[in-house]
Amino acid sequence: xxxxxxxxxxxxxxxxxxxxxxxxxxxxxxxxxxxxxxxxxxxxxxxxxxxxxxxxxxxxxxxxxxxxxxxxxxxxxxxxxxxxxxxxxxxxxxxxxxxxxxxxxxxxxxxxxxxxxxxxxxxxxxxxxxxxxxxxxxxxxxxxxxxxxxxxxxxxxxxxxxxxxxxxxxxxxxxxxxxxxxxxxxxxxxxxxxxxxxxxxxxxxxxxxxxxxxxxxxxxxxxxxxxxxxxxxxxxxxxxxxxxxxxxxxxxxxxxxxxxxxxxxxxxxxxxxxxxxxxxxxxxxxxxxxxxxxxxxxxxxxxxxxxxxxxxxxxxxxxxxxxxxxxxxxxxxxxxxxxxxxxxxxxxxxxxxxxxxxxxxxxxxxxxxxxxxxxxxxxxxxxxxxxxxxxxxxxxxxxxxxxxxxxxxxxxxxxxxxxxxxxxxxxxxxxxxxxxxxxxxxxxxxxxxxxxxxxxxxxxxxxxxxxxxxxxxxxxxxxxxxxxxxxxxxxxxxxxxxxxxxxxxxxxxxxxxxxxxxxxxxxxxxxxxxxxxxxxxxxxxxxxxxxxxxxxxxxxxxxxxxxx
Amino acid sequence: xxxxxxxxxxxxxxxxxxxxxxxxxxxxxxxxxxxxxxxxxxxxxxxxxxxxxxxxxxxxxxxxxxxxxxxxxxxxxxxxxxxxxxxxxxxxxxxxxxxxxxxxxxxxxxxxxxxxxxxxxxx
Lengths: 564, 123
Hints:
The complex is a heterodimer.
Chain A: H1 9-26, H2 31-59, E1 62-66, E2 75-79, H3 81-108, H4 117-136, H5 140-158, H6 164-195, H7 200-206, H8 212-230, H9 238-242, H10 248-272, H11 280-299, H12 304-325, H13 328-359, H14 370-373, H15 375-389, H16 395-410, H17 413-442, H18 456-490, H19 494-512, H20 514-529, H21 531-539
Antiparallel strand pairs in A: 1-2
Helix pairs in contact in A: 1-2, 1-4, 2-3, 2-4, 3-4, 3-10, 3-13, 3-19, 4-5, 5-6, 5-10, 6-8, 7-21, 8-10, 10-12, 10-13, 11-12, 11-17, 12-13, 12-16, 12-17, 13-15, 13-16, 13-18, 13-19, 13-20, 15-17, 15-19, 16-17
Chain B: H1 5-22, H2 27-46, H3 68-99, H4 108-116
Helix pairs in contact in B: 1-2, 2-3
């Protein structure tokens, strides 16, 4: 694992989008150049990450010590199979959403001149930087920094344009995120006090020697911090409140990536630092409640965006379930499910953006008859919707089967209850999503709204002939509306439809290529369960620094716990 | 290392005040709360580092040298909270410009959704 020729790829995955962000800021007055740079950056990043994944699958973990300081002292970037896999999936999503946003922005530019589109590209690339950095961070503090990078970018994106509604909806998200960051940073401070290190590999060696009560405290704090970001049950309320008000592409990328970074951190920390799983039961209960309460919220919603936000919360429960099982099979299923959910949820939110464009609303009561206006859109929403609900043979079904198998294998009563809860949730998801799809696309367009209707009092006075005339009038209006929707659908920007189609297609690819992809997830889970592999890779990644002996300043913290 | 009681009590008090302020709807109060709680965390980090300053040579009286890592972490955390503070200030200002109120308003979308669909879910 020592210094291979391809190791330079790893820092590239972070440096590329960061450099891209800087460049797009410089050329902020030239939107065309800006668009070119941001798409190009993400495309190159994706290529680099695919190469990296191939190499990691073949040769094992890549470790890079930034600045040449060896493992426990410097900043270490680690790309094992899980990280490399997540990088590829996340950048695919980011690229598709970027294309969608650009094509939407280009179409909208004349309508909303005050929206600072020039801010969007640098911020989006910074978000991509934060997400990539989170996946490869080799120590807790670097993980914290990457969370802050992506959070700060997300704050800007969620309040984009600074309208009243976005500020209002963004505020709870921002405050909750800041609080969870403070909890995370406190956990880092306490971890350092207890062990004298924050390097993940080093911690995984040193934590077993620490008092189990202290370890449990640290674990609880980290789980709370990550749980807020992943929107796990008691800490999810900020999500359905803030996500729906952001612009469609922003919601899509948030739904796809941000919560999954939280889940990734939970998977990493649980497997690497706290493998004994003293919180397994608690996590399972949290997973069950997240699934059930989330989906009950989804069923009750009257707007598509909110409904989808609640299904997002609900399905986080599945991933948490896989993690809580603690077995390799459970982790593998969770990893596959994360990839599936990133792709599907993003595709759905992009689809909602298209619906909003065609129909001018995402409130169910005002939607209807879109299937005749745009059959393509109906199909584009239907496929990921069925995928989300876990209809066979889609990837959602495969992921759920993997989870349930792992749950049944586990054999505890609680995990069996969770399997039942999961089945129920997936049925309710089907109900919620079919209800939305049926109302939006299948049922006839809704009656003309109250504003357009003539006075009701008139009707009762003038008798039947007027009533029939009004009915004809209404019918004509409805047809005009449908024609208008059809025209709008025909005028949908090609890039938006193309990006959504691409997301749906990649989501289906997860089904078609389920064998090899599930194999990657399985390998990643096995690598995770064998902690020595990770620790070995990190520690053998460079020569020890010359002149470092136990009496040197760096070891002065020795009294605090495990010396260096 | 001995963490002093004074430090621990200060951290606790800062945290309590900070979180209390963050519960407010007024964005400036939230900002102040975030700053206080941020300082609490920085102090918590600092309480890890105890001893002579590791600047030049060995300390003469043989006392252990301070660990520089927590201080590096604090510096980074301060920079991050500077960025967040700037953002929150801009947001508070923008909110004031748009709504003419220092506080974050009610969720208009909630209200609208309730009005738009009386009976959603029972059709």
